[in-house]
Amino acid sequence: MTTIDPRQFRNALGAFATGVTVVTTSDEFGNDVGLTANSFNSVSLEPPMVLWSLARNAGSLPAFMGNEHFAVHVLSNRQEAVSNRFAKRGVDKFTGLELTRGQGGVPLLSECAARFECRTAYRYEGGDHMIFVGEVLNFEHFDLPPLVYQSGGYALAVKKPAEYAAEDEAYLADSFGRNALTYLIGRVFHQLRFRLRPVLESKQLTDLEHQVIGVLGVQNDRSLDELDALLDLSNLRVSQPLLAGLVDRQLIVLSEAEQGVRARLTDAGRRLNIELLAATKAIEDEVTEGFDHGEMQVITHLMRRMARDSNVDVPPLWKKPV
Q1: Phi and psi for 156 in degrees, rounded to 5?
Q2: pLDDT, tens digit, for every residue of 182-238?
Q3: For the whole prediction, is pTM greater than 0.90?
Q4: Which part of the chain is CATH 2.30.110.10?
Q5: Contact 13, 45 (CB under 8 A)
Q6: What is the per-residue DSSP string for 41-108?
Q7: Fewer CB near the terminus (10 Å): N or C of the chain?
Q8: What's the CA gap between 263 and 223, in Å, rounded?
Q9: What is the pLDDT of residue 322?
Q10: Checking phi first, is residue 91 left (phi over 0); if not, alpha (psi -120 to 50) or beta?
Q11: Closest CA relative to residue 42, chosen from 292, 231, 294, 300
């Protein structure tokens, strides 16, 4: 298995702009299977993991359920025809294409912007979709411009979002409170957390325990000071009883280092974090179902800028590889 370099893996993930991918595998009879999917997301850098989702009524679902391997191809801007082909049903999608074979004999396409060969680590039933979380076993980044899909068509740049209707603009202009970012962001955050609450209760997790596991899932092996500083953003603090409870449940381990005590997820903690990430992704997909690709890219881009430019003195959630 190829050793994964975190910096190169991050660069390859950056090739994904708005979600034009083709996911491939092979069924139990050795037939190649593939489809166009727009649900690709990164999950973790260490270990490198990605996820995507497939409708539970899709004809290709049995193949992906029966094969432990799949490949995600981030299409380049020269592959519009490939995207259209794999979006259709009842056609031979692989005829005439240049193919190689990857992990588990999965078919690999050429001329894409990036390609990730994965082993299925977890499957999660998210409403009418099955969410596949894959451990990346190998990847290639071809440094080609990615294909962008926006508002029902292909594009090379994100389209300016539609303006509010005049009556909505007038309504919002009358009240700073209704239009305040702190109010809007806070309301969305709490509404999403409310939807996740039944999942946490089923796992007998408090909100703070979930956040500790999530922070370690993004970047494992953190000092207690780092955990405390990151969670302080939510006005929460790490306590010894909380850590002891997670240790007793074999979700984290604590170790002494020169700089003090450090926390790491156990294998059970990693599995739980992946399950919670899949559940969170399912909730996000449900909430944003009415958004087009352009709107989602704008939201993500602006939220990243706000997070980067907020000037809050806390450790970075995603550490840059050395």
Answers
A1: -110, -10
A2: 888 888 888 888 999 999 999 999 988 998 999 899 888 888 888 888 877 666 678
A3: no
A4: 6-155
A5: no
A6: EEEETTTTEEEEEEETT-TTHHHHHH-SEEEEEE-BTT-HHHHHHHHSSSS-TTTT--EEE-GGG-EE
A7: C
A8: 6
A9: 44
A10: beta
A11: 300
**CATH architecture group of domain 166-309:** Orthogonal Bundle (1.10)
Helix%, strand%, coil% for the chain, nearest 5: 40, 25, 35
| Token pair 């994100």: residue | 158
Q: Which two tokens stand for residue 243?
A: 């850590």
Structural class in CATH, domain 6-155: mainly beta
Q: Please, which residues have CB within 8 angstroms of residue 18's CB and are 6 or more apart in sequence?
A: 38, 148, 149, 150, 158, 293, 294, 296, 297
Q: Which residue has the higher pLDDT, 174 or 232?
A: 232
DSSP string, 145-181: PBPEEETTEEESSPPPPPPPPHHHHHHHHT-HHHH-H
Instruction: Name 245's Cβ contacts closer than 8 Å, sequence gap at least 6.
Output: 209
Tell me, what's the pLDDT at 65?
95
Tens digits of per-residue pLDDT, 58-70?
A: 999 999 999 999 9
